[in-house]
Design goal:
This protein has 316 residues and is an alpha+beta fold. It contains six helices and 15 strands. The termini are far apart.
């Protein structure tokens, strides 16, 4: 979130950037994150379901922030602020009842119920109606700490036209400790299911698509350096979902730098590129792992099977 600010950026806003690779994105306020533009920080990032309709949830996030004076100051009164809330939506409409989609109240309640201690994965938030390949998708998280203490984490809503599972083996593209190759009969069943895209009430005529994510670090970074993290995050997506960045996907990755930890050398100084590359490599890794966790944590919904129900022997 962020405190009341001057006309440039919030004292507690987060340095942010975005990278959009899919051919069918549903986004809001992403242009503001262009490094050359005026506002330097975001006060929240929203990942939502409901396709373009769901972007209305950002109105509720803005209202919650504005009531607390968080945003870009635009007047002499401390209450005169405009929160910067970039947002992106997945296409999941066939997984719900028409007309039931996130609105401003969803966004407001998400802020009210946000927790720094509880981590929920699977069929929650933007992952509720997510599908990836032949199985139920969901929200996944992962994090790591580098040798110098820098922390990098990711939250991803996995919903893609491509698959997070190698249909020839029945295993995720990213190795998972403790997961074994499923029985051949289950692998064959997975191939059959993948031949007809699953929807909540049976096969659908178009793919459910778009994977969204946020990668964050406690480093102090510039918008341009944050942009490098978003590019690396897309690399992690391409490792874990194949194919990725399709014309029918809207794959979008955000990056946030809290500035509560250390900082990199200045551009051009010794070790700047090496340190930034290390953080970017970690960003790709945590995004890939978060995608796998989102798929493994997802639960079946009506006729859409989860990984655990399609390949139960992988867990035995």
């Amino acid at each position: 979130m962020g405190d009341r600010v001057d006309g440039r950026a919030g004292a507690r806003g987060r340095q942010a950037a975005v990278d959009v690779r899919g051919g069918a994105p549903g986004t809001r306020e992403t242009d503001v994150l262009e490094p050359s533009h005026l506002v330097q920080q975001a006060h929240a990032v929203l990942l939502t379901g409901g396709s373009a309709y769901g972007l209305a949830a950002a109105d509720g996030v803005m209202r919650w922030l504005g009531e607390r004076g968080h945003g870009v100051g635009v007047g002499t009164d401390p209450a005169h602020v405009v929160p910067v809330v970039p947002a992106a939506a997945i296409f999941d409409l066939p997984m719900g009842d028409w007309g039931h989609r996130p609105d401003a109240e969803f966004g407001y309640l998400a802020c009210e119920n946000a927790s720094t201690t509880e981590t929920r994965q699977g069929n929650v938030g933007a992952g509720t109606g997510a599908v990836v390949g032949a199985v139920k998708g969901g929200v996944g998280t992962a994090s790591t700490e580098l040798a110098d203490g820098t922390r990098v984490g990711a939250l991803v809503a996995v919903n893609a036209a491509g698959s997070a599972v190698d249909l020839d083996t029945g295993l995720p593209w990213i190795p998972v400790p403790g997961l074994r190759p499923p029985d051949p009969a289950e692998v064959e069943r997975g191939r059959r299911v993948a031949g007809s895209r699953p929807g909540r009430h049976g096969p659908i005529g178009r793919p459910l698509n778009t994977t969204l994510g946020v990668v964050a670090t406690d480093l102090r970074l510039s918008k341009a350096e944050c942009r490098r993290l978003t590019i690396a995050a897309q690399d992690g997506l391409a490792r874990a979902v194949r194919p990725a960045h399709a014309l029918v996907d809207g794959d979008t990755m955000f990056a946030l730098a809290t500035g509560t930890g250390g900082e990199l050398p200045r551009p051009g100084e010794p070790d700047w590129s090496r340190r930034l590359d290390e953080v970017c490599a970690a960003a790709a890794d945590v995004v890939a792992r978060a995608i796998v966790r989102g798929v493994l944590a997802a639960e079946p919904v009506d006729e859409v099977m989860s990984y655990t129900t399609l390949y139960p022997s992988a867990w035995e």
